[in-house]
Automatic annotation (TrEMBL):
Protein name: Unannotated protein
Keyword terms, alphabetized: Transferase
CDD domains: Cis_IPPS
Cofactor(s) essential for the protein: Mg(2+)
Gene Ontology BP annotations: polyprenol biosynthetic process
Gene Ontology MF: a single term: manganese ion binding
InterPro entries hit by this protein: UPP_synth-like, UPP_synth-like_CS, UPP_synth-like_sf
UniProt cross-references to PANTHER family, sorted A to Z: DEHYDRODOLICHYL DIPHOSPHATE SYNTHASE 2, DEHYDRODOLICHYL DIPHOSPHATE SYNTHASE FAMILY MEMBER
GO annotation, cellular component aspect: cytosol; plasma membrane
Length: 259
């Protein structure tokens, strides 16, 4: 099995970054279009995306990223054809089983975020097995969002607040951004610093809406199966060049008045 952490085998060199994002989120888009351009099935496109994910994980570790969150299957993906949904369920299960030992060897901590309803029991088993195996790792936290949607995550948190209020466990007006964030299923995931979407599409697709309030957005034209650590590093370089204001402003340098 090729060790993707061995940069010499990839023939690439890690750039020097002015700053590195702590938390990177990625919408892995473009598998279907990649396959169509090659006369292949969408299933073949998804298979090709596996190597891309592994290379990006390796690149994130090398760059010093501490949290990587990927959109593996959304709550809206159930609208796809039954054949594609069946493949994606089995594919997610098989990838976890095949790669968890390798990720564990790299020091990756795997987390699953998503809803249980409709999700195959076998997929849940593999996700929970991977979580248990890697729970003490500290090199990188890889959060797999499977059967996840950000709007429903927020609605679930609101319903939890309503339940707590009905039991008089919280007082009206006492909810803060911090306390609300603790009720999200992604907790304790940090705020997103860099949000990447592959394939040229320029939208965030109901992914980490709350957590991405002040994220820097980078939209890559590269289709996901062709996305690797070099594209990740290019996105980090772009992130490094930006001034993050978090709603504030940066004063321009003062100049002497012209006489």
């Amino acid at each position: 099995m090729m060790d993707f952490l061995d940069v010499s085998k990839k023939g690439v060199k890690l750039p020097r970054f002015e700053k590195v994002p702590k938390h990177v989120a990625i919408v892995m888009d473009g598998n279907g279009r990649w396959a169509n351009k090659r006369g292949l099935t969408r299933v073949e496109g998804h298979k090709a995306g596996e190597a891309a994910l592994l290379d990006v994980v390796a690149g994130a570790i090398e760059a010093g990223v501490s949290e990587l969150t990927v959109f593996a299957f959304s709550t809206e993906n159930w609208k796809r054809s039954p054949e594609e949904v069946r493949f994606l369920m089995g594919f997610n299960k098989d990838v976890l089983r095949a790669r968890r030992d390798q990720l564990n060897h790299w020091g990756v901590k795997i987390r699953w975020v998503g809803r249980r309803p409709k999700l195959w029991a076998s997929v849940i088993d593999e996700l929970e097995t991977a979580q248990e195996l890697t729970k003490r790792n500290k090199v990188l936290t890889l959060t797999m969002c499977v059967n996840y949607g950000s709007r429903i995550e927020i609605v679930d948190a609101v319903n939890e607040i309503a339940l707590l209020a009905s039991k008089r466990k919280i007082k009206p007006g006492s909810v803060t951004e911090k306390s609300f964030g603790k009720l999200l299923s992604t907790n304790p995931l940090g705020n997103v610093d860099l949000f990447i979407r592959s394939s040229g599409e320029k939208r965030i697709s109901n992914f980490l809406l709350w957590q991405s309030a002040y994220a820097e957005l980078v939209f890559s034209e590269v289709l996901w199966p062709d996305f690797d650590r070099k594209q990740l590093w290019a996105s980090i370089t772009e992130y490094s060049s930006r001034q993050r204001r978090f709603g504030g402003a940066i004063d321009s340098p003062k100049t002497k008045p012209v006489k």
